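Quick sanity check, Alpha/beta hydrolase:
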Amino acid sequence: MQSMRPLFLSLLAAATLAACGGGDDDNTPEDTRPQDSRNSFVPAEPNATTFPALAAAPSDTVDPGTTSRWAGVLGGAAYRIEVPQNWNGRLVMYAHGYAGTGNTLGVSNPSIRRYLIQQGYAWAASSYSKNYYDVRAGVEDTNALALAFNSIATARGRTLSPPQRSYIIGHSMGGHITAAAIEAEAQSTANNRYRYHGAVPMCGVLGDTELFDYFTAAQVTAQALAGVPQQPVAQWAAVSAQVTSALFTNFPSAPTALGQSYLSVIQNLTGGPRPLFGLGVAVGGSFAPVWGVFGSDGTVNGILNANVTDTTRFTYVIDGNPTASAALNAQAQKVTATPDANRLRRDGLRWIPKTNGEIGIPVVTLHTLGDLYVPFSMEQIYQRRVAAKGNSAWLVQRAIRGASHCDFTVAEQVEAFEAMVQWEQGGARPGGDDVVTATTVAAPTYGCTYTRDTLGPDDSSTTAQLRAAIAQSGASCTP
């Protein structure tokens, strides 16, 4: 396995800078942001001490009702911990996705919970102490729970040895949390620092703030094609109906002629021509949420104080029409980020932690091809960042033929997790997909290698419906 010496040296350098003040030795207080004043978040079940056992399934070899299950509140965040009686000494931290802007904090069980119990893994999950797109809180609270694992177990009457191995997995925003938590930057700047041995980010925001660049690019190109290119981005509501009717007769599944051009732009913004892009629009429903976030001021709803979005690097492409592409690029509004909107902090992690590609542990990612909300291009961005840091040996990526956001089968997730663990335990580097070669990604069978359409007892009805729609369309890998 690749030496971790370069990672250790980078961490040592970062720690040395921090000890010296990082070159910034003034005592100016850190600025605050709207998110800092949101203090009314309350766990959904603040007095819970346990949670329901997983219902047994015919395939179980271990009774899921015999696990130790602890719930509680740590640092304002609700948590759940589950430890099988035959614990294998390994801990899996689960990071859930975006939970909205409400005040209620909820904990999500990992989708591979049954597998973890059957294989002897302990798992733990935090609600995080705040909602909104607060990845900083997600990393800190997940790490804090991992650090408290043994003390919580002892307090509940079960003495456990420290975990021999700790892994982190997560979906969507939780994929961002997963990827950020293992970065060298997080290891040197987080207030709660925890060392993981492997990670599986799924449908993750692996390009961190570049996701919001995509949202803005999708808006300004829609406005340009609909004839209102210079309408201020934050004033989307004033032109929303006009733009929608110009591009769709039935949003988003029935585009007009202009809408067809627009969807070509979106395809190229989200990863290029690939199988299931069309189903992601028509069936997956993952593009409608993108339309719903138009009109942002670029602060990610008060996570930042200034605009972080930037569209200046984009070249918009309408396939087969270079003249229309040139006109669109000339007309589309250019949005420029405020310098240092998401700068390094002196009091901990950045407000939106980065995924710089500075990794030194096995990482296996999953992404569905039809995902337009957190698009497949996130994988391409991450691959390039990791490669630029010289860390490609630590990354394996897998494309799944799903039509929407995070609609993996449990089998696909289990296989990715197993591959990561076997790799981390000294096995061969597992197989993955090339996510950046355009001709490879555009191939009709792309994504078939790691797609598993067989449904198990823990698969959601939504996943079943989407896989049925894929099969009906003829895009399934299964004959």
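Posting the structure with no commentary besides this: The chain has 15 helices and twelve strands.
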